[in-house]
Design goal:
Layout lengths: L1 E10 L7 E10 L2 E7 L11 E5 L3 E5 L1 E6 L15 H15 L2 H17 L2 E8 L8 H12 L2 E8 L14 H14 L7 E7 L7 H14 L3 E5 L3 H11 L3 H7 L7 E5 L5 H10 L2 E4 L1 H6 L7 H7 L2 E4 L10 H10 L2 H4 L7 H7 L2 H6 L17 E5 L11 H7 L6 E6 L2 E5 L2 E2 L4 H16 L1
Parallel strand pairs: 1-4, 1-5, 6-7, 7-8, 8-9, 10-11, 11-12, 12-13
Antiparallel strand pairs: 1-2, 2-3, 5-14, 14-15, 15-16, 16-17
């Protein structure tokens, strides 16, 4: 089966950042086979070909949400006017303690489908559960498969009693055993499910357990995904405990490398940036979440100058999985620190939301740009709404004007999962109703 997308403004986000103002793209089965200007398109003859007219649309690689917590969205709207610690204590920890496998499945499905509707084709999802409900993680991954999205699962762990409720604490043996089980059962499934190691936060983990988890990550070639310097109380406690900063401690444990994700990094220091750059690690920037919890603005311009790789996520306290919003905030917030309108450009924001995320996840040979040989993970965004009119630079409109509701078509591995702005295989109203009913039973 071949699919041709024609007459669209195509932003490839390849190494040369090529664009085709009137471009075309050919998909054969699950891969992109050709991309270029319309005048060079050779239509296949005598074959079954599906043609999608992208007139008035921007065609981009599927967006990559490099950090979120899909199941947390079952607590959407709770404890919103709070800082991080209070939000965890009032909303997230009590909610997560009530969630069983069925609820974990539903929360994951809700999050995956919301991401798809917003043009996201790959998600890095961070989840941990009550220690007596380890099977919840299987429900989360089953929902991801059912949604059709590509998902990297950062299964979180805690093994140090500090603020975090005892119900979430696991032994190192439990933690490492579960990762090995997940790798055997899930890693690489349909080339759409991938396992990541996740000490949730250095604050809540024994250094020796992180060390062992890092060794396991190297054994299997997995990414290590952890929250870093998100809020002031965390940074102060880490420095009191170790007389060092987050990245300095983690680097001494040997886990900071090209597969390491420093999520948030709102309050990291210049020496920490230098370590991240030298190791080839990635910072995951979550601007909306950091604003909502009053955590601050990560020093993105300084990170860029230091050579740190930066990808983009929505996180959960953002309250929405709209990566368009995340791109806009990623472009405009860093400007206010030095009053520099070029701190992050619209094209840099798009790259953070696509190719940089693919590189962080170790999937850049498969996704992240529109190039022959890569999976056909493709998003089409309408530029015809009033808020996107007129169109001089579609990428600028995408970042500064568009929102998730402008997404019209989404493909993952060549399969159309969103068409005309609607889910193809799921009913939005049915998922919303079932989720609402489940949450009313759990939280009222």
């Amino acid at each position: 089966m071949k699919t041709i997308i024609k007459n669209g403004y195509i932003a490839t986000v390849n190494r040369e950042d090529q664009v085709y103002p009137r471009g075309a793209l050919m998909v054969e089965n699950d891969r992109i086979s050709w991309v270029g200007p319309m005048e060079d398109l050779v239509m296949p003859e005598g074959e079954d070909v599906r043609v999608i007219d992208a007139t008035g649309h921007l065609v981009i690689p599927g967006l990559i949400n490099a950090h979120t917590h899909n199941v947390y969205y079952l607590m959407r709207g709770l404890a919103m006017d709070a800082e991080l610690k209070e939000w965890l204590e009032r909303a997230i920890w009590p909610g997560l303690m009530r969630i069983d496998r069925q609820a974990a499945y539903q929360g994951s499905l809700l999050g995956c489908l919301e991401n798809l509707l917003g043009g996201v084709t790959c998600v890095a999802d961070n989840y941990y559960m009550h220690r007596e409900r380890k099977e919840n993680i299987d429900g989360v991954l089953e929902a991801a498969l059912d949604s059709g999205i590509r998902l990297c699962m950062a299964r979180g762990f805690h093994d140090l009693q500090f603020n975090v409720p005892e119900e979430f604490l696991e032994t190192p043996e439990e933690i490492l055993g579960e990762y090995r089980r997940m790798v055997r059962t899930w890693h690489g499934r349909e080339d759409r499910i991938f396992v990541m190691i996740s000490p949730v936060n250095l604050l809540y983990s024994q250094p020796d357990t992180i060390l062992q988890a890092g060794e396991l990550a190297r054994e299997y070639g997995l990414c290590l995904h952890t929250h870093v310097a998100e809020a002031g109380f965390e940074v102060r406690e880490i420095h009191r405990r170790y007389r060092k900063h987050y990245i300095e401690v983690l680097d001494r444990l040997g886990v900071v490398d090209e597969r390491f994700h420093a999520v948030h990094s709102v309050m990291i220091t210049r020496p920490e940036m230098a370590i991240l750059a030298e190791r080839g690690a990635t910072v995951i920037f979550n601007p909306a979440s950091n604003l909502l919890l009053a955590s601050g603005v990560a020093p993105i311009e300084e990170m860029k100058e230091a050579g740190v790789r930066i990808a983009l996520g929505t996180d959960a306290p953002n309250n929405t999985q709209d990566m368009m919003q995340s791109m806009k905030l990623a472009a405009i917030l860093p400007r206010i620190i030095r009053h520099n309108p070029l701190a992050v450009t619209s094209r840099e924001a798009l790259r953070m939301a696509t190719m940089a995320g693919a590189e962080a996840l170790g999937l850049d040979d498969r996704i992240g740009s529109l190039e022959p040989g890569k999976y056909a993970d493709i998003t089409m965004v309408s530029m015809e709404a009033l808020h996107n009119t007129p169109v001089y630079d579609p990428v600028a409109n995408l970042v500064y004007s568009a929102h998730a509701g402008d997404v019209r078509t989404v493909m993952v591995s060549g399969e159309v999962l969103v068409e005309g702005g609607r889910l193809v295989h799921h009913s939005e109203s049915e998922v919303a109703a079932k989720t609402g009913e489940l949450c009313s039973r759990m939280f009222h």
